[in-house]
Amino acid sequence: MFCINLKTVYLIRHAKSSWKEPDLSDHQRPLNQKGLRDAPTMAGKFYDSGARPKLWICSSSQRTRQTCQFFKDQFDKAINPMLPVINHSDQLYHGSIEDYFSVISEAGDQFTSLVLFGHNFTITDLANLYSNQPIENVPTCGIVTLDFKMEYWSDIKNTPGSVRDFIYPKLYK
Question: How far apart are CA 107 and CA 90, in angstroms?
């Protein structure tokens, strides 16, 4: 008998970034005050949802790394801290949907869920591939949960999926 497992991808768009320092490259831009406020809030909501992905893949940009750190800090506060594997990927920085599929496909199949900390428009476009209702925009620090019935991450591109949840900071104001 063949059993198909459920795999989950959490798409997290980086929190709001700063444009105050025009000499910084786009890759080096940090979070602004709103981002520094929203990231811990959304990290708490993510943790409270019961999500416990053990593989986190983060774009190499400063703003996504900072966002990821807020989420890690939230998980570190737990009584039994979960120690995720955190990888950084240049492929997620301004990556296409194909780049995101490539990164997901390389995940170890022992992981049943993973998080991608990335950027728009790819986050919104990827979410819309699996949504029954169009998502106009995944706001900064928005989180989209995608479920797939598949055994191997390498099957992601050809496997139907569905949006289980979509949350973002304005829902909690």
Answer: 15
